[in-house]
Amino acid sequence: MSILIDQNTRVLVQGITGKEGSFWTQHMVDMGTNVVAGVTPGKEGQLCCGAPVYHSVRNAVKEHRADAAMVFVPPKFVMDAVMESLDSGIRLIVTLADGIPLHEQAKIRSAALANSTVVIGGNTSGLIAPGKAMMGSIPYWIERVYKPGRIGIMTRSGSLTNEVTAMVVAAGFGVSTLIGVGGDPVPGARFAEFLPAFEADRETDAVVIIGELGGTMEEEVAEAIASGRFTKPLVSFLSGRTAPPGTRMGHAGAIITGGKGSVEDKTKLLESVGARVARRPREVGTLLIEALGERK
Amino acid sequence: MKLFEYQAKEVFAGAGIPVPKSVLITKADETAVAVSAVGLPCVMKCQVLSGGRGKAGLVKLAHTQAEAEALAEEYFTEVPSLHAVLVEEAVAIERELYLALTMDAPSGRAMLMGCVEGGVEIEHVAAHTPEKIVREYIDLDRGLQPFQINDFAFRLGLKDNALKQVGKICGALYKAFRSMDAELIEINPLFLTKDGSVVAGDGKLSIDDNSMFRHAAYEKGRPYYASDMEYEAAKEGIPYIEFDGDISLMCAGAGLANTVYDLVNYEGGTIANYLEFGGPNYMKAGTAMRLCLANHPKVILIVTFGTIARADVMAEGITKAVQELKPDCPIVACLRGTGEERVDEIFAPIGLKRLSDTEEAVRKAVAIASGRERA
User: Fold this and answer.
1) Mind telling me how many Å the CA of A87 is from chain B's nearest CA?
2) Do domains A1-123 and A142-296 have the same CATH topology?
3) Whole-angstrom Cα distance, residue A108 to residue A11?
């Protein structure tokens, strides 16, 4: 089992005929993802990556029941694309673009909450259940990172995901589901919201969180553990431990403001509820072994 | 994009928020005219983006024209790359409030914040008595409703005219927040004056970088950056932060760059600059290296683990950059990801050896910077 997606998830791709859209949709299909339809206004009737293309999500959903929408549109058009899928009743949406205007990020988040919908992203490479399905631009072919296994992974960063997940695999583990919530200040979905699903998933033994300075997502994870909503082992690596306060470190959300959001405070809180926090990427593997025992 | 105080106040004034009379000067010899327009005493305020201007002596009261002129002279000669001073009327203050709007990520709503203990100590209040800061959450589709403003102002403990005036300011501030695509808009202090009116004493406004296409009138020129190199990097769209240490970071991806930054610090090294050339910039190795070399680092540390940002493409860029720029400092390169198997061959002409472990690369760079190891 995995959470959110598997080979049976019926995926619709918005912006399927674009350069990035068709490139990554082909990879999704090659990996085994069940892409049932695509949407590009003006291109209804074409085939792309083996999937029929429609003018609108409405038309696509009428012909092909879809469980999930993958959004490959430029940042300015993301909010409209998300609202379009929401409007057609789709309840899992993944959006990759980096550069969604902040006030639109907030409207997407607010609409996701109001409609009990999971909107993952933006500014992410997406979502993958290795060996089963992928929604995003994730290089599933890199075996030392995307090896199927029993560890759930959630991340705010693309580049660091490869670095840290490689350590998980090097320590003898693999990945059940990896969710990139993204590096935006107002992501559509937040770490703690996926913990109940990982808790219920019989094929996930532990969760690794790849976080960073800024925001409150790591604090919410600590709260979920403290309240008993998540009881499996949790290991975390947080970047930006030595970052100077008030300086924006690459991601828009990666900043310590008004003394809040430091890695030190996040670490204290996570450790106080029994989570393990690695100081270096390599320690993620060591701490997983400590929590779960050696893997052969 | 963080705006200067005078720009924030232009926005306030446009939204109907009262601001003190002021004149912006860009040379010391414009002081006399400015002072005669705003009157005495006046406040001389350096237009810089760093916080804590008062404590740093960059905002001072002048009682006479001579004092104002002396301050202007001092500021323009001594404050590095200062481009303007705001000459502003001094307001007779009774109380100072704090008002701000920002985005609340968990709820996806705007968050209005207020405190009756405004002024320079607001961060102290936030850290020690956060309950004194009153909050109201606003759904962006519905907007800020009158009942919310009322409740907010009552919770602040305001009465009578002050309640009414501050309420009006909240409405105007919210409109400005939305129309400017602000990530933060702040009036601190908001003066309640002896004659019962309200005036924005200082203003902060930061426009969301992703929304700048809707605010093309603001051009982010050199005054908005701490150094020439940060400005150069920004023009190339490369995230770059200058420090004064030994090791130039050239990393792909913000998360990885932050991790390498931490690891260098753990190992006792120091950072010359943070530079991130992942994502859309992965083909700009030459520009990235030129920016690093401008800091005269003792070593350049390259760390990547890219997929779309292919290792072989970055290696080709690095090889070309080394051949063209002939850096006088050693390079440590740790490249992983798509095409990594081709990197050694690509690096052969410049004699660079690819490392594959981040920590090993960091230790090597720190050892070279400290003189313990030769490249």
Assistant:
1) 16
2) yes
3) 20
User: What ipTM describes this predicted complex?
Assistant: 0.93
CATH architecture designation of domain B93-214: 2-Layer Sandwich (3.30)
Which residues fall within 8 angstroms of residue A191, CB to CB, at 6 or more apart? A154, A181, A209, A211, A217, A218, A220, A221
User: Residues of A with catalytic annotation?
Assistant: 251
Cis peptide bond prior to B189, omega within 30° of 0? yes
Q: How far apart are the first and last CA of chain B?
A: 40
CA angle B351, B239, B235 (to 5 degrees): 100
Task: Give the residue from B128, B274, B307, B336 with the most A CB atoms within 10 Å of its CB, the best one to mutate.
Answer: B307
> Span B21-89: which CATH code?
3.30.1490.20
Note which residues in 141-200 of chain B have CB less than 8 A from chain A: 141, 178, 181, 183
Nearest to A73 by CA among A16, A28, A145, A31: A16
Q: Which CATH superfamily is domain A142-296 in?
A: Succinyl-CoA synthetase domains (3.40.50.261)
pTM over 0.90: yes
Alpha carbon separation from B233 to B239, B259, B290 (Å, rounded): 7, 21, 10
Residues 6+ apart with CB under 8 A from A269: A218, A219, A222
Superfamily of domain covering A1-123: NAD(P)-binding Rossmann-like Domain (3.40.50.720)
- Domain layout of chain B by residue ranges: 21-89, 93-214, 236-369
Q: Is B306 on the interface with A (CB under 8 A)?
A: yes
Q: What is the pLDDT along chain A (296 residues), one digit of tens a residue?
A: 689 999 999 999 999 999 999 999 999 999 999 999 999 999 999 999 999 999 999 999 999 999 999 999 999 999 999 999 999 999 999 999 999 999 999 999 999 999 999 999 999 999 999 999 999 999 898 888 999 999 999 999 888 999 999 999 999 999 999 999 999 999 999 999 999 999 999 999 999 999 999 999 999 999 999 999 999 999 999 999 998 887 888 776 777 776 678 999 999 999 999 999 999 999 999 999 999 987 65
Of all residues in chain A, the one with the smallest CA distance to B274 is A249
Closest-CA residue in chain A for B206?
A102
Q: Residue A295's closest CA among A151, A111, A115, A85? A: A151
The token pair that represents B147 in the structure block: 């009942």
Residue A144 in contact with residue A169, Cβ under 8 Å?
yes
B210: nearest CB among A101, A216, A247: A101
Instruction: Give A1 to chain B, closest Cα distance, Å.
Output: 26
Catalogue the active-site residues of B. 98, 186
Identify the three-state secondary structure at position A124. coil
Domain ranges across chain A:
1-123, 142-296
CATH classification number, B236-369, choose in 3.40.1550.10, 3.30.70.100, 3.40.50.261, 3.40.50.150: 3.40.50.261
